[in-house]
Fold:
Amino acid sequence: MNIKKSDFSEWYNTITKDAQLCDLRYGIKGFVVFMPWAVMSMNRMYAMYEQAVESRGHVPALFPALIPEEYFTREGEHVKGFIPEVFWVTHAGDTKLEERYAMRPTSETAMYTMYALWIHGVKDLPLKIYQRCQVWRHETKATKPFIRSREFHWIEAHDCFATREQAMAQVREDMEMAEEVIHGHFCVPFLFFKRPQWDKFAGAEDTYAADTLMPDGRALQLPSTHMLGQNFSKAFGIKYTDDKGKEEYVWQTCYGPAISRIYAAVIATHGDDKGLVLPVRLAPLQVVIVPIIKEETREKVMQRCKEVANAIGCCFFVKIDDSDNTPGFKYNQWEMKGVPLRIEIGMRDVEADSVVVVRRDTGEKIKVKTSEVDAKLGEIAGSIDKTLRARADKWFSDKLSFAEDMDELGKKLELHGFVRVPFCTDGMEAEKCADIVKDKVQANIRGSLFGSDAKPEGKKCISCGNKATIYLYAAKQY
RNA sequence: GGGGAGAUGAGCUAACCUGGUAUGCUGUCAGCUUUGGGAGCUGGUUGUCUGAGUUCAAAUCUCAGUCUCCCCA
Structure:
């Protein structure tokens, strides 16, 4: 196993292969096979995220994967942003299609075509629909399993409202949902940035995106939520008749948590030099029982293993590893896989009427009375998630820094992830200032920190030297 | 999009410069012996990325393609 801290890239490649999370040998660039151990965790993540989405009033639907070119090109900015990375379907059998179909890189244009047919009056609003699906983008940046591939799996929620205020409230709800699920359940810390105008979602008025940090200090974008305004509703004719009998265009938002990428953040945030470390509810198995067998005591030990397995509550998946491997091999293998809890049972333990419980997160070995196993496991499990979250938060909190000139920014970027700098503006006209930052210190401007209203007083823009009106954050990125 | 490195059984690798029967480890399968931190012995098992060229002869040299990794945009 490689060392996570000093060579994250190698560590990540090794862990995705050794823990059997994916197989890169499929043979189409950027398309990877997601393997059972990863998919079982991602299914759990999906379940938690869908629960959060539905409890906030969204209902599920499934839209087609193919989008006729004509739908796809209705909103000008959207097309400009996505066209370079679209995979096209051009043939049916040997017959060339009259109109080609886009393999959806995102579903706005598929869904909004139908929304225009479904929405008539006030009673149809708000409309909050999500789907769980995969999308395809011919990424030109380097692909990396789970982090960036040309096919990825996500949830996309697309909502319509009667007013701008309601739409803006939805954007805030989306952020709050990310906090509940990604930080609360997955124990991954992040910050929400309002992206600068030159870096917003193609077709949106504003984009708010959650950025986390990889162990090498580079930012990784997790969910983003977009205030679409009326850009799409005007392009697609999504109108309703208001209470005065007047036709109005709806206000829209969309939200896209990419489960495969969030899974990458879970791996990177919690993993260590022995392999994966998973929050308890994300692990495909919560408990593995390793019997330590001598031929003459085999039956007694196995019997005790079964009793202990049966005594553990149904919210935990338990496996007794009775394979022929040696205990040491099993310890290493299940540590690599990130199983949160291990129970070791040998004749010694049977005689003492106890078991040895080992925590994956701390490696701590705890002797537990057989009769108290279930209660104790529940307690330790809670503590594991708390420990993981606290550990991640502590690391993350040190990654925020400040700089006021380019030299200082370059130095701070070496030690921290996000560096706050004074900037002239976050409007389109400042893109050239962001380019200067990119050129000089190879960092991107991620935007302004959402919820922070600090304003630079008497400071100058780090790039152009004009009066600074806003604090923006720079980071190297994936 | 730019630059660099690379591709030999399922995984890692030797042989490549200097063309001539493809090496070892791991895995896997069978059997026996084993089991408190990656067990041992015996036997079986699969391979030169694809295509073209040079040559008596290509894993090795040349060209093209595909894929992977790293760095930069």
Remarks:
- Chain A has a mean pLDDT of 95.
